Structure formats: C-alpha cells, structure tokens
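Lab notebook, design round three. We kept the backbone fixed and only want residue identities now. Task for the bench partner: fill in a sequence for the structure below.
Input structure tokens:
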C-alpha cells in the first residue's frame, strides 16, 4: 500500500463521522483541537523507509485518534484543514501519548467491564501470543517465548483447565472469576507468583495492549483447555 493511499484512508476516517454528527460541544473549539494535536509530541515513527509496517500501524492509530475527535466534536474539517492537520500530525504526534490513550491500563475491575463489550478472536490472540502480530507501539509481546518452556513459565497448553481446577481452588482466589484471574495474571503478574516459578513476567502489558488485543489473548488462552498432566 502506498503512502498516498494510506493518507486517503485517513481522510475518509476523518470526514465520514464528521458528516454524520454536528453537535459541537465544549473542548471542541478550533483552538482546543489544535492544542490536542500539538500535545502529540515528537516521536511517532512514520518513516516508511525505516520500518514500513510500523509506520503503517502508526498511521492507522493516528486515523483512529482523529476519528474519535471527529465523533466527539461533530467536527467535519474541510480539505485545507485536513491537509494542515495531517502535516502537523506528521510532525508532532507522540507515539507514547497515543499508546497510553489506547492501552488497557492496570485496573482489573475497569478492564473486566470493558472486556464484556468486546468479542475476542482466538486466532488473532494466537498471532499476538506468538509474536506474529505486533502489540501497541509495534513490538511483539513475547508470551510464547516463555510459556512454551515449562522450566521458565506455566505451559500455554491447559491454561484454562489449570486456572479452573488449581488456581481458583486456592483460598485467596475464592471470590475470583476465571476471567478476573486471567486478566490479573496478564496485566499485574506480580500480584500473585505461581509456586515453583520466578517473578520474571514483564509488568508492561497493561500499557501495550488495546482492549481488543487483550480480548483476543483471553479468547486464545481460554481455548487452551487440555487435560492437565500434573
Ligand atoms: C519473561 C517470561 C514471560 C513472558 C514474556 C510472559 N510470561 Fe506469563 N508468566 C511467566 C511466569 C514465570 C509465570 C508464573 C509466575 C507468575 O505468576 O508470575 C507467568 C504466568 C502467567 C499466567 C498465569 C498462568 C497460571 O498457570 O497461573 C498467565 C495467564 C500468563 N503468564 C500469560 C502471559 C501472556 C498472555 C503473556 C504475553 C502477553 C505472558 N504471559 C508473557 C513468564 C512470562
């Protein structure tokens, strides 16, 4: 896909919702919108020569951000405004800010509420888990690297069964649901360290996953319901 066609895609993501709504609210003045754009600082990688895949993913992220602005503000910019906005975005967008805005965070209760609204796709979850599809920011997650080796981490196989038949029977998890345990294990791995394992699981996933990606991972892990051989 060429850069030009990607930018055209961005135009559509901007214009369509803008046309559908027209009740502008506070925080939607041109000054405020300009301010919001300028807070996206300097680091968004959009250099197709260096990493085309990452630049493409980042452009989509930017489009999604503008789309939500358009929805919130009923804002339908004209062509000249769109050009200015894109030029600015290409100069000022901060990948860090975009990622924080889109990631699930660390509040398991909040995440569980959001997760109820999202359909998880186990196949995409498998790609994420195996590092074949990047997480937010463009880097792979590396789950399989640890969880395919029983000496390092509990095996991926039988995760569903192990949680239900072993973990949730422990007194401290008496009130937990299956999903609560799973989400907590992923975004707050240090809250409970599985016996016989070291506390090596990274604590960054709450900042690296969208709610959709987390739903996909959960769907994939929930499909791992083999019998336990412990
Ligand atoms: C550096 C190695 C490492 C990576 C990478 C890693 N984990 Fe883990 N994970 C562990 C270890 C070790 C444990 C057991 C100790 C603990 O509870 O933290 C664990 C525990 C878990 C558990 C609980 C399993 C159980 O039987 O109770 C789940 C679920 C899990 N990880 C999912 C993931 C997912 C999803 C990813 C990727 C987003 C991931 N892990 C990445 C090492 C890792």
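Proposed sequence:
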């Amino acid at each position: 896909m060429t850069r030009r066609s990607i930018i055209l895609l961005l135009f559509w993501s901007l214009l369509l919702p803008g046309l559908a709504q027209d009740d502008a609210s506070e925080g939607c003045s041109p000054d405020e919108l300009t301010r919001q754009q300028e807070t996206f600082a300097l680091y968004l990688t959009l250099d197709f020569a260096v990493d085309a895949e990452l630049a493409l993913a980042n452009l989509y992220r930017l489009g999604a951000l503008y789309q939500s602005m358009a929805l919130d503000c009923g804002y339908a910019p004209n062509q000249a405004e769109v050009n200015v906005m894109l030029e600015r975005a290409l100069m000022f967008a901060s990948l860090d800010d975009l990622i924080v805005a889109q990631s699930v965070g660390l509040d398991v209760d909040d995440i569980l509420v959001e997760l109820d609204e999202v359909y998880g796709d186990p196949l995409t979850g498998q790609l994420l888990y195996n590092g074949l599809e990047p997480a937010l920011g463009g880097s792979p997650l590396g789950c399989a690297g640890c969880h395919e080796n029983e000496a390092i981490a509990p095996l991926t196989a039988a995760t569903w069964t192990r949680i239900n038949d072993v973990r949730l029977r422990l007194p401290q998890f008496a009130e937990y649901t299956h999903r609560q345990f799973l989400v907590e294990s992923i975004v707050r791995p240090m809250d409970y360290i599985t016996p016989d394992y070291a506390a090596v699981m990274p604590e960054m996933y709450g900042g690296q996953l969208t709610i959709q990606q987390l739903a996909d991972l959960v769907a994939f892990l929930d499909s791992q319901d083999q019998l336990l051989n412990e």
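Keep this in mind before ordering anything: The radius of gyration is 21 Å.
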